[in-house]
Amino acid sequence: MMKRSYCQFEFVPGVYLLPVADGTARLLNFGGKFYSINRTARQYLEIALDEAPEQRLKEFAQRDIQEIEIEYFQLLDQLLRCRVLRPHHERERQSPVTARCWTRAAALPIRGALRMCPSRLQAWFLLALARCSFACLGWSRTVALWSQCFPLFGKSNSTASEMAISRQIHQNICRAASLHVLRVACKERALCCWVLLRSAGVANELVVGATLLPVTSHAWCECHGQILSDFADHCDRFVPVVRFS
Q1: Any idea which of 16-20, 42-46, 109-113, 224-228 has the lowest mean pLDDT?
Q2: Is it the case that residue 211 has pLDDT exceeding 60?
Q3: pTM score, two decimals?
Q4: What contacts 53, CB < 8 A, 6 or more positions away?
């Protein structure tokens, strides 16, 4: 078991907590597994994320504090072993210069797909790169990297023109995905749709949602209230958890 320490904890990148009305919660790790946690575990987790966990735990305890501490640290030990939680002071540190170098190096093949490929093949190559990126870097690092590689350039002239652009990109992505030799899923389609719209100057959101029973996730794009990269009736089943603009 971990050494007893009342430091503040935080979720590792790509982990989100989805509270449920009955007091329970779902812990979503987009780099690994999903977990259902009961009401007490949710309360312990919220205490661990607080700036003063020791005081919060003492206020929460209605019986022997030692018994509560055992349960509390057992939960933290499990979450640390599952790599969904980390001490706040152990946050990854990377110098701005190093981060910029990595971004520029990784951006070359991604941007090259847009500049060197014919327009009808851009979606196909981007989907392949997205598949490789998720496999090598995981969810959080891929989204962070691609958002830097594809900044939002300006704005289109009107909502009507943005809608026309978004429909065309949606069709290109879905057509390329249906014919792709790789197994591209919702996250690859949503990511590519998101960055292509950003490159075209169209503001949009990359959305990740989840269902409660069973615990599953899904990704899609939204632009002017329209769902892109997937069917609207399918995405309506999922509760939005996080949005990237």
Answers
A1: 109-113
A2: yes
A3: 0.80
A4: 6, 7, 8, 9, 47
Polymer length of the chain: 245
Beta bridge partners of 11: 85
Work out the mean pLDDT of the chain and round it to a whole number: 85
Cα(45)–Cα(153) distance, integer angstroms? 40
The token pair at 21 is 């009305």
Q: How many angstroms separate the CA atoms of 171 and 227, rounded? A: 12
The residues spanned by each domain of the chain are 9-90, 97-244
Half-sphere exposure of 169 (CA within 13 A, CB side): 30
Structure token digits, residue 106: 């990784």
Neighbouring residues of 123: CB distance < 8 A, sequence distance ≥ 6: 169, 172, 173, 175, 176, 177, 192, 196
Q: Are 124 and 176 in contact (CB under 8 A)?
A: yes
CB 194 within 8 A of CB 206: yes
First-to-last alpha carbon distance for the chain, in angstroms, is 40
Radius of gyration of the chain (CA): 21
The residues that bridge with 239 in the sheet, in sequence order, are 210
pLDDT in tens, 134-169: 998 889 889 988 888 888 776 656 888 899 999 999
Decide which of 3.30.1490, 4.10.410, 3.10.620, 3.30.70 is the CATH code for 97-244.
Answer: 3.10.620
